[in-house]
Amino acid sequence: MRTIDFVILAIYAVAIFGLAQWVSRDKGGHRKDSTDYFLAGKALPWWAIGASLIAANISAEQIIGMSGSGYALGLAIASYEWMAALTLLIVGKFFLPIFLKNNISTMPQFLEQRYGPSVRNVMALFWLVLYVFVNLTSILWLGSIAIHTVAGIDQMTALVIIGVFALAYQLWGGLKAVALTDIVQVALLITGGLIIVFLSLTKIGHGDLLAGFNQLTTQFPDKFDMILSRDNPHYKDLPGLSVLFGGLWVMNVSYWGFNQYIIQRALGAKDIAEAQKGIALAAYLKLLMPVIVVLPGIAALVLVPGLAKPDQAYPEMMKLLPPGVLGLVFAALVAAIVASLAAKINSIATIFTLDVYAKVRKGSSERHLVTVGRITAVVAVIVGILMAKPLLGKAEQAFQFIQDFTGFFTPGIVVIFILGLFWKRATTASALVAAIGGAALSGAFFVADKAGVFVIPFMNRVGLVFLLTLAAAIIVSLVAPQKKDVNVVTLEGVSYKTTTGFNIAGLGVILILIALYATWW
Fold first, then answer.
1. Does the structure show a pLDDT above 60 at 399?
2. Which has the higher per-residue pLDDT, 64 or 77?
3. Which one in 334, 361, 401, 428 has a CA-CA gap of 20 to 30 Å to 319?
4. Cα angle 405-410-411, degrees, rounded to a multiple of 5
5. From CA 72, how far away is CA 397, in angstroms rounded?
6. Closest by CA position to 170, among listed 384, 351, 381
7. Which residue from 108, 168, 163 is spatially nearest to 138, judged by alpha carbons?
8. Contact residues for 24 (Cβ-Cβ < 8 A; gap 6+)
9. pLDDT above 70 as % of the chain
10. From the centroid of its chain, how far is CA 181?
11. What number of CA atoms fall less than 13 Å from residue 66's CA on the CB side?
12. pLDDT tens, residue by residue, 164-203
């Protein structure tokens, strides 16, 4: 990087930090309470919700990790993005109305209202471990790889810098500081991503964008198969039709519907209509994401072939950019890392403070809870920085590592929530069976697969464990009905009717998906 690149990066850092403090400032002598800090006062507009959903989602694990997977296995990895667009519509139409009607602030809170404190405790602990030791560490590690590769900064130094900056950026303002600046972060992310795609394709096509893309499809036709056949060497990562009808649905529903750092943005909406408009915006942005995060990895096959690790693809592509442009694209990458880190940090603080600390220290003042949230954020970042290298230093494809790990738990999570939302007879025992049994089954299948006893792609494993866990939870609920009613979740007055605008937007997403899969099947 040249001086101009560092100047652009510095301008971004100062501007986004200042903007975060300004939009989240206390007005008229009002001091932040827990609703202000953790849910932005439940007043987020649709554009902030949509942008913040993407900013929380797209980070180093997508940009670096999915570009690496694009380099290794091709466009098929885009199914994670494209099917997520359809999943978002389902979440907006069927899940959000129940959450907002019941004034839900956290996912563990919903579980407590539906099943009782035991399920809340188990899942709150699980999410805290997952967010700190998988999500936080993966973003820190992959982000540090990018900064080290492009800027030449020592990787561990880079890791500390981005962790501390993301912490400081949201520490005072909470969710409001994150969500109301994410429109800038996402605009920068999309701009930077499109620049690197444009320059890489025109370089391949000797000045012609379409010629560059056509060369990629001609030279590497196997990299543009959306549905992998059994003889494909990467079939185990993306097993054919399972991306359309199998385990990917379980992964996506868990991530977009019941994941605190994602759904927290929609829970901060001022009303259901605003939340659904934000969801629709996020769905269209998801359709665009593979262009930004997968295509550069495929282009790297031509421009920087023979990489030792697929995850080096995106950082190596950035090296091809001219001064100034490199600074802008690098700032976009840093923006994605910082925004996503801030989202995770805030959600870790939210769950620990509201679902753990506030339950133990009942009667704590609002000011005290906000202070605890800030302390929790600091501790989470310190742990993430210390554990990033030990956990991810040897991973070949970090994105697949993350999917494999979360796949142990997502089947049980989806069973617990789906039954809790839509089946009144689901019991506390059935939820615990789903949570513990789902993880145990996943572990057993994983060990059997590694031993060669029962070889099964992880996505198929997720689908199979979901069906087995669902059956077990239903049987437990029927055989041993709830003796004491603990369900205080109400469906009365919940309407699944959506506006004409949301319906038209949803139809557009479906038609685009049909066209994409028909073209690249």
1. no
2. 77
3. 401
4. 125
5. 9
6. 381
7. 163
8. 172, 173, 174, 176, 177, 180
9. 97
10. 18
11. 21
12. 999 998 888 888 888 888 888 888 888 888 988 998 999 9
Can you read off the two tokens belonging to residue 184?
A: 């800038």
Higher pLDDT, 297 or 232: 297
Structure tokens at 464: 């199979």
Contact 485, 416 (CB under 8 A): no
CA distances from 340 to 1, 139, 182, 497 (A): 24, 8, 9, 32
**Closest Cα partner for 101 from 280, 354, 271?**
271
Distance separating alpha carbons of residues 521 and 256, to the nearest angstrom: 25
**Helices and strands counted in the chain (H then E):** 28, 0
Whole-angstrom distance, CA of residue 278 vs CA of residue 53: 8
State the Cα–Cα distance between residues 50 and 45, nearest whole angstrom: 9
> Exposed/middle/buried for 278, CB within 10 Å: 0-12, 13-18, 19+?
buried
Distance, CA of 178 to CA of 190 (rounded, Å): 18
- Tell me the average pLDDT of the chain: 88
CB hemisphere CA count around 496 (13 angstroms): 9
CA 209 to each of CA 195, 197, 304: distance values in angstroms, whole numbers, following the listed order: 12, 9, 18
Q: Coil, strand, or helix at residue 210? A: helix
Do residues 209 and 202 make contact, with C-beta atoms less than 8 angstroms apart? yes
Would you say residue 397 has pLDDT above 60?
no
Question: How many residues comprise the chain?
Answer: 521
Q: Above 70 in pLDDT, residue 60?
A: no
**Residue matched to tokens 């600074």:** 327
Token output for 454: 């029962």
Q: What is the mean pLDDT of residues 487-508?
A: 89
Please give the structure tokens belonging to residue 62: 């997508």
Mean pLDDT to the nearest integer, 466-488: 90
What residues form DSSP beta bridges with 409?
none
Q: What residues contact residue 374 under an 8 Å CB cut-off, 6+ apart? A: 171, 172, 349
Vertex 170: Cα angle to 25 and 409 (nearest 5):
140
Band the pLDDT of 400: cuts 50, 70, 90: low
